[in-house]
Amino acid sequence: MASLRLHHFSFVFTLVTLLSLSFPLYTHPFDFTEATVDSIQEAFKNRSLSSVQLVQHYLSLIRKLNPRLHAVIEVNPDALTQAARADLNREKNWLNQHRLHGIPILVKDNIGTADKLNTTAGSFALLGSVVCRDSGVVKKLREAGAVILGKASMTEWAAFRSDQAPNGWCARAGQGINPYVRSGSPCGSSSGSAISAAANLATVTLGTETDGSIICPSAFNSVVGIKPTVGLTSRSVVIPISPRQDTVGPICRTVKDAVYVLDAIVGYDVYDAKATKEAAKYIPQGGYLKFLKLDGLKRKRVGILRKDFFNFPKNSLHGKVFEQHFNLMRKKGATIIDNLQIANISAILDQSGEEVALTTEFKMAINEYLSQLTSSPVRSLADIISFDDNHDKEEKIKEYDQQQFLDSERTNGINSTVRNAISNMAQLSSRGIETLIREKRLDAIVTPDATVTSVLAIGGYPGISVPAGYDETGAPFGICFGGLKGFEPRLIEIAYAFEQATKVRKPPPFKSLL
Hints:
Distance between the termini: 20 Å
InterPro entries: Amidase_dom, AS_sf
Strand content: 5-15%
Protein name: Amidase domain-containing protein
Keywords: Signal
Largest sheet: 11 strands, mixed
Order of helices and strands: HHHEHEHEEEHEHEEHHEHEHHHHHEHEEH
Oligomer: single chain
Pfam families: Amidase
Organism: Rhynchospora tenuis
Radius of gyration: 22 Å
């Protein structure tokens, strides 16, 4: 297992110290626990905190907690230098800076960064590979002034190598641990991003989703996750599974912080031109912050998908908590339409053709990604399979089968079977969730945890997961608000109003992290 590269920071210590001499002394105490973008920016403004101090705090916490949580694969050896630069820029020009300026962010290990960090999807097969440029989303984060703190762990290959590997496991970082209940699942594949956000190892984090990989870890780790409409955020230089379903989105402790990140990363990218140009029509003038409304539930029509999703009795702890949430939404002005069902839901969940399509799309997408790397130990899916076969035996590490890789390698492009599968998913989506939402005039559907992710995935639809409660063991669970393409504004209104009215989230018990 690769260790964190914290020792690389020694060479920048002198530089950072010299740069810090030009700053005022920061003497007022700052509470780092559950720190938000707003509280940090206020501390920057009143000079009770610097970006350097903030990064130093997170690095210290990562050193302390990561050996138990396995949430971070690498820290950025240039993070302190970036932070010092942000502090200098702030002194020169406070006005017109993005809210993420000087804010440390951890990005999932499948999101490319053209720096000293690796981009490996948690696999040794890509260790040492060099991307040709920053990913589209990282480029936008840098333009906003964010500090790239490091790479968050993930379920290796976004859980696409094997269906035998547990959620949160990867060769480079080991098994990710749920910070609330050590025996509980962290879910995946953006497990490290969610664990890190939950345990306060960074201000904000970034994840990716093909089917459930933002929504599920957010729910299981009591954080907020936004799965954007496919194409709203660029996927260029992101290790792919399916360009038809892949999307990049924030995982944070609050809805507002997630919206700050979303605002920074949406928009057109010439390297993902077709998808981002098509989705750009959904981006509201002036961005998403204006939808953070305390009365965001007022006059909203929210549909509860009871059958097939709420698979627990009303008198159970989960059932009672959700009934309380529904009553609260009513009190806040929402119209709750209960006992709704998506047409052909069994076919959507079991016979949509998603697996057939993803299996073929992965080989094509990963081979194209590998071909664009400046350098790489592997250049094809076949190379990855061969590497893993040899490496697993040589290193004698615990690994899992490569059945999904093998199935994908046997495919030969988009044939009639795959085209039929893709067409079937489009028809199921049109006749299912789209028809239901339009006929019932819904602003959102609501489901528990990540039960609805396949419905959202096959149609490229958005969803937001918000902390909803904790079970008898202390394990978190979430509530998911989903909608049609471009529904982000109304989903943000609903999610923010719900979050502010319930205030469910609490940090993990400290003893569980030690």
